[in-house]
Design goal:
The complex is a heterodimer of chains A (297) and B (313). Chain A is α/β, with parallel strands linked by helices. Chain A has one domain: P-loop containing nucleotide triphosphate hydrolases (Rossmann fold, 3-Layer(aba) Sandwich), CATH 3.40.50.300. Chain A is built from 11 helices and 10 strands. Chain A has helices at 3-21, 81-87, 118-124, 139-149, 156-166, 170-173, 186-199, 216-229, 242-248, 276-281, 286-292; strands spanning 41-52, 55-66, 70-74, 98-106, 109-110, 125-128, 204-208, 234-238, 251-259, 266-275. In chain A, strands 5-4-1-2-10-9-3-8-7-6 form a 10-stranded mixed sheet, with helices on both faces. In chain A, a hairpin with a 6-residue loop joins strand 9 (251-259) and strand 10. In chain A, helix 4 (139-149) runs parallel beside helix 7 (186-199), helix 5 packs across helix 7 and helix 7 (186-199) runs parallel beside helix 8. Chain B has 12 helices and no strands. Chain B is mostly helical and 313 residues long. Chain B has a domain at 91-265: MetI-like (MetI-like fold, Orthogonal Bundle), CATH 1.10.3720. Chain B is flat and about 100 Å long. Classes of the chains: A alpha/beta (297), B mainly alpha (313).
């Protein structure tokens, strides 16, 4: 079997396993690329509110995230973008005082239902963090960690290679897989984290400001990667960089900080959510226009 | 821009003047500052010398007195009251080794377990968890003789009723150093950044998988260092052992559960040191050298381990 064939094989297994675990039977090419009204939804949020210790951090979020889209969340600091993205794979559960209200559906299933196991959620919905956080292990072990905890023993080499190729890192590291991951550059470390994430064959990848610690060249590589990855995964990205949102995303949500009457409390609120092109060229809300044109924020 | 004619010499003059002023300012160090700095550095050096002088005096004293008695016989011969030239430390060395083996067996699982609970599971907003924390800090400062009394009352007699056996001494020493191990292990676990835990959890690992495969491996060097330092403390402890039955004079090789009694290095040294004969004094000094070498070796190994495997984040 040639390398290309084996890669194609792994790719097919990848998609099948992901589809199976998400309990959806969609094959590549079958899903609908038509107008947004009929597209398959990954996340459906209705009136989602996140509270820390009883105080709202973000409220009233109603939006749908579509399959195989890159969906960007933009907005000024403190508007709750990171809070929101972290409740999409239940990472907020790690903060004891955090509480999520409202309806948050994932492929039609209530993500915060009483029978839902957050560990299983995170297997399906991967996450890439702001600061690259490779494990203090070899490059190989970093990527193999996820498959190993899922009990995969055979074909680990193929899985690791597939994931590293998927993250456009294989050519750079194939000769030093046993080296410690801390020896990689920041941009390589972040691509390693992406490889680590796709090695467990998730259905959706969340990226929380994945390029904010990287130089422009590494950023460019990761942006190219996102566009490639959305063929296979749905991606939600938080970014401070509006050009980045404009370059990579299909749809963009703009969030803003809102204050109550006596300015004691502040929380984030969704201002506008639409096709990225429309948000950046012809937004319907004047606040969006002010923000994307650089007048405020 | 001005031409090279009239303005240039004046510019050169101004530059030279500015440079002279700067030089004068930079080189003008007040004499008082120099004296104060030197005096302060001298005081600090003195503090270090005082600390080292104690160790140095002990080493010189021990070598001067004990070098005549230093031989391999120390390790192979049992003690003797009649023939100091033949007396050795064999039962005491074996007793000490068995004692610290028991300490290690007890302290590693219990110490790491307690540290993991406090760092990874305990909700620090609850008062009882804070109470436990404060108590562990306090326990580390409790005098060792108190642990001896505890061991006597609860392990040798009382609920456990093990009798005066080596295992009871081992348990007592383990309780004594357990707070040290917990504190060292907690620090090592806390040094693992949260981003590692989050990265692991975000891949669908369970909390236990995250602890077992990420947090523990990353904190092993720190924990090992703490365990070694704690064990060297246990190795040198005498007071609690006297209370829990480390008989001072044993001529046979002790076993962990035998009721015939046992001895340990520091106890045996004490036993030799209180005898009036010159030869026994030399034996005691030789025993001190042996113990110091073992302790220094263990501590050096702990430092090497820390420097070699410590993870820098």
């Amino acid at each position: 079997m040639t390398q290309d064939e084996s890669r194609a094989g792994t790719g097919r297994q990848t998609r099948e396993a992901a589809a199976e675990r998400a309990a959806i039977a969609v094959r590549p090419g079958e899903f609908n690329h038509g107008p947004s009204g009929v597209r398959e939804k990954v996340f459906e949020m209705k009136g989602v509110e996140v509270l820390y210790g009883g105080v709202s951090a973000v409220k009233d979020i109603t939006m749908d995230v579509h399959r195989n889209d890159v969906t960007a969340l933009i907005g000024p600091s403190g508007c709750g973008k990171s809070t929101l993205i972290r409740c999409l794979n239940r990472m907020n559960d790690l903060i004891p005082s955090a509480e999520v209200r409202g309806e948050l559906l994932y492929h039609g299933e209530d993500l915060y239902g009483s029978t839902v196991d957050p560990v299983q959620v995170r297997k399906l919905i991967g996450m890439v963090f702001q600061k690259p956080n490779p494990f203090p292990k070899s490059i190989y072990d970093n990527v193999a960690f996820g498959p190993r905890i899922l009990g995969e023993k055979d074909d680990l080499d193929a899985t690791v290679e597939g994931a590293l190729r998927g993250a456009a890192l294989w050519e750079e590291v194939k000769d030093r897989l046993e080296d410690n991951a801390f020896g990689l550059s920041g941009g390589q470390q972040q691509r390693l984290c992406i490889a680590r994430c796709i090695a467990v064959q998730p259905d959706t990848i969340l990226m929380d400001e994945p390029c904010s610690a990287l130089d422009p060249i590494s950023t460019g590589k990761i942006e190219d990667l996102m566009i490639e990855l959305k063929e296979q995964f749905s991606i939600v990205i938080v970014t401070h960089n509006m050009q980045q949102a404009a370059r990579v995303s299909d749809r963009t949500a703009f969030l803003m900080v809102e204050l109550d009457a006596d300015e004691d409390n502040r929380w984030g609120r969704l201002v506008e959510y639409d096709e990225t092109e429309k948000i950046f060229t012809n937004p319907s809300d004047s606040r969006t226009e002010d923000y994307v044109s650089g007048k405020v924020g | 821009m001005t031409g090279p004619g009239a303005a240039a010499p004046r510019n050169r003059l101004a530059t030279a003047g500015a440079r002279a002023t700067t030089q004068a300012m930079l080189r003008n160090q007040p004499r008082g500052d120099v004296i104060r700095n030197t005096a302060f550095a001298g005081l600090l050096l003195l503090a270090i010398l005082i600390a080292l002088a104690g160790l140095l005096a002990l080493l010189i004293q021990a070598f001067a007195k004990g070098s005549s008695a230093l031989s391999l016989d120390l390790f192979t011969n049992p003690p003797s009251t009649a023939f100091p030239e033949k007396a050795g430390f064999r039962p005491a060395i074996i007793g000490s080794l068995e004692l610290i083996a028991g300490v290690i067996l007890f302290v590693i699982p219990v110490g790491i377990g307690a540290a993991l609970y406090l760092e990874e599971y305990a909700d620090k907003t609850r008062w009882w968890n804070r109470l436990i924390e404060v108590n562990i800090q306090n326990l580390a400062a409790v005098p060792s003789i108190i642990y001896g009394i505890l061991g006597l009352a609860f392990i040798v007699r009382g609920p456990f009723d093990l009798g005066f056996i080596l295992a009871a001494g081992s348990l007592t020493l383990a309780l004594l150093v357990l707070p040290m191990v917990i504190i060292a292990a907690r620090e090592a676990i806390r040094a693992v950044p949260d981003s590692i835990r989050q990265g692991s959890l975000a891949l669908g690992a369970t909390k236990w998988q995250t602890i077992r495969r990420q947090v523990l491996p990353a904190s092993v060097p720190g924990i090992a260092t703490g365990v070694i330092l704690a064990v060297s403390r246990a190795l040198g402890e005498t007071a609690p052992l006297l209370l829990v039955g480390a008989t001072v004079f044993v001529t046979f090789d002790p076993t962990p559960f035998s009721p015939d009694g046992y001895s340990a290095m520091p106890v045996q040294i004490f036993n030799y040191a209180v005898r009036p004969q010159e030869e026994f004094q030399a034996l005691a000094a030789a025993g001190i050298i042996v113990m110091l070498i073992v302790l220094l070796a263990m501590n050096s190994f702990a430092i090497w381990l820390r420097n070699r495997y410590e993870q820098r984040w």
